[in-house]
Specification:
Number of helices: 9
Oligomer: single chain
Largest sheet: none
Distance between the termini: 55 Å
Strand content: under 5%
Helix content: over 70%
Structural class: mainly alpha
Order of helices and strands: HHHHHHHHH
Length: about 220
């Protein structure tokens, strides 16, 4: 019974970690809200689940302690920041133009579910600081006496992240009918501007990293 409780406790802790990492408003959250409003829950969920599975991948690296791959990701932080910034800039441009498109036009066409999933999966993977967070958190949990059950940790992270996106899409989807075309256009353009801000911030981090490397 005690072992069962330990596994349950570990799973709940990991679920909470996945939930807390997914919940802060960022580029993925903005995309999920904007796409749910414009295209419905299915596209919003596909967008969010792409991030959830990327969180699970990084969670697996942290839980299993794949040190060589973690080191490679740390070494590739600057190229990943460049790619992530370019992708965010492209998403901002696309979101801005989609917001200005009339309903039913080609630009406002519903995106494919697989592309919505793949896009946020790749975008989340372009931020290697996520895996460092998992390494630190899971390391602290193991030091605190938690059983070494990496699959329970990964499953909990995936469940927690997916739970957040299910909740967000459910709430936004329920409010969707209250947003007319004009309101959706404003939400889309605001999302595009915030995505652009995230892209610029990513490039600022890149520039700071390059400057520090050259100074060293």
């Amino acid at each position: 019974m005690q072992a069962s409780l330990s596994w349950q406790s570990l799973g709940l802790q990991s679920l909470w970690i996945g939930l807390s990492i997914a919940a802060p408003v960022g580029p993925i959250g903005l995309l999920v809200i904007q796409r749910t409003l414009r295209h419905g829950r299915a596209v919003g969920l596909a967008t969010g689940f792409g991030a959830a599975f990327a969180d699970a991948v990084y969670g697996a690296l942290g839980a299993f302690g794949v040190s060589a791959l973690i080191g490679a990701l740390q070494a590739a932080r600057l190229p990943l920041a460049l790619v992530g910034g370019i992708f965010l800039f492209w998403l901002a441009w696309r979101t801005w133009h989609a917001a200005g498109a009339a309903a039913g036009s080609v630009s406002a066409a519903r995106p494919a579910l697989w592309s919505s999933f793949a896009g946020t999966f790749g975008l989340t993977l372009s931020n290697p600081s996520t895996v460092l967070s998992f390494v630190a958190i899971f390391g602290a949990m193991s030091a605190g006496g938690a059983p070494a059950s990496p699959w329970v940790m990964v499953g909990g992270v995936l469940a927690g992240s997916a739970l957040w996106w299910l909740t967000l899409c459910g709430v936004v989807g329920a409010l969707r009918e209250r947003f007319d075309e004009r309101a959706q256009r404003w939400v889309g353009r605001a999302s595009a501007l915030m995505l652009l801000a995230f892209a610029l911030w990513q490039w600022a981090v890149l520039a700071a990293g390059l400057q520090a490397r050259w100074a060293g």
